[in-house]
Amino acid sequence: MRLMISTTSMVPIYEQIINAIRAQIISGELKKGDILPSVRSLSKDLKISALTVKKAYDCLEEEGLAETVHGKGTYITAENSALLEEEQRVEIEKDLEKLITKARQFGFSKEELQELFELVSEDF
Known about the structure:
Blueprint: H1 13-27, H2 39-46, H3 50-62, E1 66-69, E2 73-76, H4 81-105, H5 110-121
Antiparallel strand pairs: 1-2
Helix pairs in contact: 1-3, 2-3
């Protein structure tokens, strides 16, 4: 499992870890039953505090995405398709909002945009 974090980002490191793991669950890279790196291992790899990794893992547990079995590790528990579908829906909505904003800037009417959407989506 590869995680990329930015120490210059305004997003706290533990949130970056959560977001990266959540994204890997949504994409299917991480599946139910997969084990996450140990807190010590991940903190060493990312050169960050073990407490930061622990906080991220605790938050993943609170969200129902992971479960820690003491002495064995932290496992992905998310087969929560409703949660994953909602995450995907939110991402699509954001992209559509950007598209609508751009279409308005170009002077497209709602009807023209709907017509264009139907034309493009015919291939689906």
